[in-house]
Amino acid sequence: MQQNPAFLGTLRCWRGSQKLGIAPLALAVLGLVMETGCPGGDGAKNSVSGKVTLNGKPVAGTVVFIGADNSEVGTSPIGPEGNYTIVNPTPGPVKILVKGKGAAGSGPGVGPVIAPPKGGPTTPDMPGTTQGENPPPKYGNAASTPLTYEVKPGKQTYDIPLNP
């Protein structure tokens, strides 16, 4: 049986281009990784951090930024001292919600706010206990919160003092 030389040339060309096709693909993937950065790099380009207080005392719960399109653009738990940090929020105007522990949407597994046992400490490893003041309900609803902020590119500090 006689073999077709044109067919063999096509086969060689196809196999050769397949080998060469990997190099451009590898370069494209490498370029994408370099463009987007690697995990554990310098981190957030934008962040907003500060302290949430009520009558000068730290607040317990969660801070949520709501964008102009009513979508969540950032969220952060509030630490024991009232500190929060929203990492990589979308720049632009936001409404700020401050939801107390146990409030709807404040996180899975967070029960109702209860006082710690008398004489006992209030610590993060005691689920359901407060680590600060519970914010007034008006701050936990996008329709009633009076809090707004303009997120800009970069790292910013914005303290959130709440009124009763």
Features:
alpha+beta, 164 residues, Immunoglobulin-like, 1 helix, four-stranded antiparallel sheet, 2 domains
Structure summary:
The chain contains one helix and nine strands; from the N terminus they run H-E-E-E-E-E-E-E-E-E. It is of the alpha+beta class and 164 residues long. The protein has two domains: 41 residues; 116 residues, Immunoglobulin-like (Sandwich).
Provide structural commentary.
With 164 residues, this protein is α+β, with helices and mostly antiparallel strands. The chain has two domains: 1-41; 47-162, Carboxypeptidase-like, regulatory domain (Immunoglobulin-like). It is built from one helix and nine strands, in the order H-E-E-E-E-E-E-E-E-E. Strands 1, 2, 5, 8 and 9 form a five-stranded mixed sheet that branches. The longest helix is centred in the first third of the chain and has 32 residues, at 5-36. The radius of gyration is 27 Å and the shape is globular. The termini are far apart. The model is unreliable at 7-20, 25-41 and 104-130 (pLDDT under 50).
